[in-house]
Amino acid sequence: MGEQKRKEMHKNSFVFEKKNYKVMLIGLATIVFGFILMSGGGSDDPNVFNPEIYNWRRIRLAPALVLLGFGIEIYAILLNPNANAKKK
Asked: How far lies 27's CA from each of 45, 47, 50, 73, 83, in Å?
């Protein structure tokens, strides 16, 4: 009887809810977009310097988007979607 009760109490469920996963996907997309913006700017010839590697998009915007994406991921992990339902 004790084992049956324990099985009833331990139901298979996900760690996060649907809202958490949506926010995680948004964060992941932000991180991927940041890395896409960071790519490129190289030169095919190693003897030629390409100053395009130091432009504003690769130095400022892309790392900021990656950090923002990681912040969104942390928020998604800490998000409690049932907070409003418990207050009411």
From this structure: 36, 38, 31, 5, 21
Cα 33 to Cα 66: distance, rounded to the nearest angstrom: 8
Return the pLDDT at 70. 98
Q: Where are the domains of the chain?
A: 17-80
Which residue in the block uniquely carries the two structure tokens 């800490």? 78
Going 80 to 85 to 13 to 6, the CA torsion angle's sign is positive
Q: Which residue has the tokens 């991180």?
A: 31
pTM for this entry: 0.77
54 DSSP 8-state letter: G
* Nearest CA among 30, 10, 19 for reference residue 78: 19
